[in-house]
Design brief:
By secondary structure, chain A is of the alpha/beta class. Chain A is built from 13 helices and twelve strands. In chain A, α5 runs parallel beside α13, α8 packs parallel to α9 and α10 packs across α11. The structure holds a DNA duplex (16 and 16 nucleotides).
DNA sequence: CTGAAAGCGCTTACAG
DNA sequence: CTGAAAGCGCTTACAG
């Protein structure tokens, strides 16, 4: 079960890096100095339009890609991004990591993954960040909404990025989606299918998106002239367990809902479990919808109708923004500090018209 | 919602890298040349014992850590590890990524995350790997057990590492746990609590650990002189959905089990859902146990008694092995190609003595 | 607006 | 067993 033999075959490269083109190659092709190539690749300042064109053409032709290791060495601009997280929903986290770490890897930036207790003292945290020599901070939810933390980080002079916040800070980068609009679309779909008693399970109030999603739900009802029923809105905290309790309350109502919209997939999965426990058929007796489209949405049965949030892409863009900030090199085509990405309504098997409706009244 | 202002404050480093010690500092302190320091840090060959001691002391005193970017540049030994995955259980994947990417980041190695269809043609895959200039391959389950793939990769001369395989290849690195022993422990716990009708949901036969875990189950029964009942062993494929069907069959038995051991957490969660649908109390009427201790184990209710598999650490070690192989620098303290890590039985709330037992017969 | 020089921290041949 | 030199690919002052 153990030996010390080496790999059978191995293809070693020569000392020079394969034959990837270098600045020198580009400089030769464009008939300029190394310096000028470097300027075009970086700030792009103090270069005549004509020269820039020549250099860019050479770069494109040779397929030149800067060697990040060399840049780091020469420039001393090491990027060390702390990824702070708490309450890791693993499905969320894995998508997040794929995006963030992928981008970091390509740019030879380091990501330092740091677990951050709910009640961490910001001072302690800043100390830790210093120990890791972090020079930027990535804040996924719910930390993206922690005002105290944001303030403290800002005071420490660290560039930071909020992902999926409902309240972007003026002092931070932010990548968001339209949480209200997406929820509104989802609820409207249900209404169009004939539902009018639509229950809602809200999210953790410590995340600003919770408010936005609920506002979307309320707006869709209002637009359809459906009077809101307070007993159909119950609070959850994004956890499966809270979804269990919330769904029980909803179904215990004297006039129970024909559809439940949960503000994330975990709680929707819980609602599904409760429905089954009550002997209800989904979607025949009850429609159930979620939000996020994490892996859980297709793990359970029936598969969840939900909103696809591009978590990985959000993380990727936030990471790119921080890298650009630390390196002081603008990201091509992006000069906004706050970016909003599109999301999509994914129709799967957990929704349908209510039983007492044969035909949808409008569709 | 968009502006171009820059971060308010920012702490830039001077051109030289903070004041991290360099080889030159170590050389000065140890009164040797740079060359000698480099030799000690790397192969450690051709250095007198006395000199080595001096250098090592200097390294320890200064807290010297090699600058990977510089090493890569000078040595041209870029490590590019392809992480091939299929059927991503996101809970598994996120833990895996944390371990693997963390290790890669520290060592300035690149991880290229590549989704790999079940029926991918190995030739196509090898082509893709070449395009990415990958020089090592990480194989989490189920790909770690794909013989064709392993053969093809070996022929391509790429060092590879299997994670959580039941059948380590002589041509690969491997990091495993004792799947059979762990399952045996779990089943023995149930037997000690008084269970004798213990159902089992097996895993996907395309993973070699499925066999091992089932063997552990059978061994525990045999050791306790409990005759195996074929109707209590049903096959699953590690998916939630397969767990749903398997649990239904188990509970439909004329003499249903008082406990169900599922060979992973997803299927255990499904068994729990089915139990609830049947109006059974867990663990009062039925004990349910899983395997892996992914996030799902504590997401659901009651929390799952399961085996904690150190996925992140397994991924970390496998990654370290590949990096060492590509750099031809042995990992300190590890010269085995196959490593087996410990795992742990985590007792939570989903198991207990069967209802007809007041006191455990042996505990 | 453009470039020649020095240097980032390390390793690889090459000598002794 | 040990070391002086050259160079990896890039950027930063410094001159023009």
């Amino acid at each position: 079960m153990s030996s010390t033999e080496k790999s059978p075959t191995r293809g070693r490269k020569s000392r020079t890096n394969a034959n990837r083109p270098t600045v020198a190659d580009v400089a030769r092709a464009a008939e300029v100095s190394l310096m000028t190539v470097s300027r075009v690749v970086n700030h792009g300042t103090n270069v005549s339009e004509e020269t820039r064109k020549k250099v860019e053409a050479a770069i494109a032709e040779l397929g030149y890609v800067p060697n990040q290791a060399a840049r780091n060495l020469a420039g001393g601009r090491e990027v060390r991004i702390a990824l702070l997280y708490s309450n890791p929903s693993s499905a969320y986290l894995s998508e997040f990591l794929m995006g963030s770490l992928g981008e970091a890897s390509v740019n030879a930036a380091q990501i330092i993954v740091e677990y951050c207790e709910e009640g961490v003292r910001p001072a302690d945290l800043v100390g830790k960040l210093a120990a890791h020599r972090a020079n930027a901070v990535l804040l996924p939810p719910p930390l993206c909404d922690d005002e105290r933390l944001l303030k403290r980080l800002q005071k420490a002079g660290l560039p930071m990025a909020q992902i999926a916040t409902g309240r972007p800070s003026r002092h931070a980068y932010a990548v968001t989606i339209d949480d209200a609009g997406a929820t509104e679309d989802l609820v409207r779909l249900l209404i169009e299918q004939g539902h009018s008693r639509i229950g809602y399970i809200s999210g953790n109030p410590n995340q600003t998106v919770s408010e936005l999603r609920q506002a979307g739900y309320e707006k869709a009802l209002a637009d359809a002239d459906i009077a809101p029923r307070p007993d159909l809105i119950v609070s959850g905290d994004f956890s499966y367990r809270s979804g269990l309790q919330a769904a029980e309350r909803l179904l215990a109502s004297t006039e129970p809902p024909t559809a439940i919209v949960a503000s994330n997939d975990d709680m929707a999965a819980a609602a599904l479990a409760v429905a089954h426990r009550h002997g209800l058929d989904v979607p025949g007796d009850l429609s159930v919808c979620g939000f996020d489209d994490t892996a859980m949405a297709t793990t359970i049965w029936p598969e969840l109708t939900t909103i696809r949030q591009p978590i990985s892409e959000m993380a990727r863009q936030a990471t790119a923004m921080l890298i650009a900030d630390v390196r002081e090199s603008p990201v091509a085509g992006v000069d906004a500090r706050h970016v909003r990405l599109d999301c999509e309504l994914v129709r799967r098997a957990s929704h349908g018209p209510p039983r007492d409706m044969t035909v949808s009244p409008r569709a």
